[in-house]
């Protein structure tokens, strides 16, 4: 029996085997960052289903945006979403055929909600500048990210809807309203089924935000915009030790859920149909829905590994490409994988897995193969090409060091300023010895700081080596070179030319 499909992941209560904890970014102050939804389909897709992937940039060493855009084009990816207006990425997207969802972060909602001019200025700076023939194909504006998340304690309840209105009105005033729609990416905790009747057909919006959610839905529907929701089956396992593992994936469950003749074999469909039932009861059963984030991490938890990530994401791709939809709503599903590349600067308050959602490694190499032939005929993933690495040097524990009493403090210091999440319980480097743990911590700090000699000292406890300390399971990485996009100047020139041409044409229209 499916119990409580959508719950607050952080409630201190006994977990039911079928509960779906769904608060991936569920802590105040935790921003997802720049996120890109990349369509894993070519122009010729089966039906109109599309699969995207989030491109976050919360990393100490980011790949040059032009190289990433080239990789997306090589793979046939043609949709992206940014969680904030990053000029470097927008410039790299100029002239590409990649559709963009451009977002406004939560910390800007207050100003935009209070000042229509602030909304107009934002549209002028970030939409008008890039949206022209041959420029950036902006399709949606995402206003905030999961603003009604319960962990935010109502911080954005008063600002989200006014900000949404002001942005859409600014788009309309600028002449973009029929082409670009504003939406709000919600966390799935805004709807739920009661514990007394825990099935999708009993779904409804959360009591404390129901009225406000329906006002937003009506506004979106009137403007022809989609409802966007983020769903995370991984958290079902992470937050609930009783959750049946197979129900989190798409390859069948020994304990399917039955609801008025409909059969659910995975929690993704059950979750999505809970939302559809909630919208049906509100009178918007035919509204377009986009699943803004869905994915599986590869490290940082015992359930976060390469095998599970590939199993889930491949199952998701196959499910979407089938065109079968969900038990309640047949047809195409638009979903966006989370995420494109690992981000070593993300907050780990929700869990160490937060830095390991990427389908690609920090350097743009695919972590695993995905067969996308059912979507656009391409079986594998092409890596980012032309990546520049630092020299093959590592910082490890000096076995001849004497001041071992200071080792623990130095390891803690190194980890606090780098990323040691792979050392945690159930993670890829959890098998290392105490000495190897120290070497891993020292190396992460050394690499993040660009291999400066003075960053491999640690009170004389560390030494630089050219012998790779990695083993078959645990990678001691070499960082990539910090560099700006090599084509930024060319892209920027294109932006300026497009801007001038657009305003010249408008001037001619006024004159004649």
TrEMBL record:
Describe the location of the X8 domain by residue ranges. Answer: 393-476
| The protein's enzyme class | hydrolase
- Annotated EC: 3.2.1.39
Q: Which PROSITE patterns does the record cross-reference, listed alphabetically?
A: GLYCOSYL_HYDROL_F17
Q: What UniProt keywords are attached to this protein's entry?
A: Cell membrane, Disulfide bond, Glycoprotein, Glycosidase, GPI-anchor, Hydrolase, Lipoprotein, Membrane, Plant defense, Signal
Q: In Gene Ontology terms, what is a biological process of this protein? A: carbohydrate metabolic process
Indicate what this protein is called per its UniProt record.
glucan endo-1,3-beta-D-glucosidase
Its record classes its membrane topology as: Lipid-anchor; GPI-anchor
Record field: catalytic activity: Hydrolysis of (1->3)-beta-D-glucosidic linkages in (1->3)-beta-D-glucans
One Pfam family per UniProt: X8
**Of which family is this protein a member?**
Belongs to the glycosyl hydrolase 17 family.
Q: What is the lineage of its organism?
A: Eukaryota, Viridiplantae, Streptophyta, Embryophyta, Tracheophyta
| Domain of life of the native organism | Eukaryota
Principal place of residence: membrane
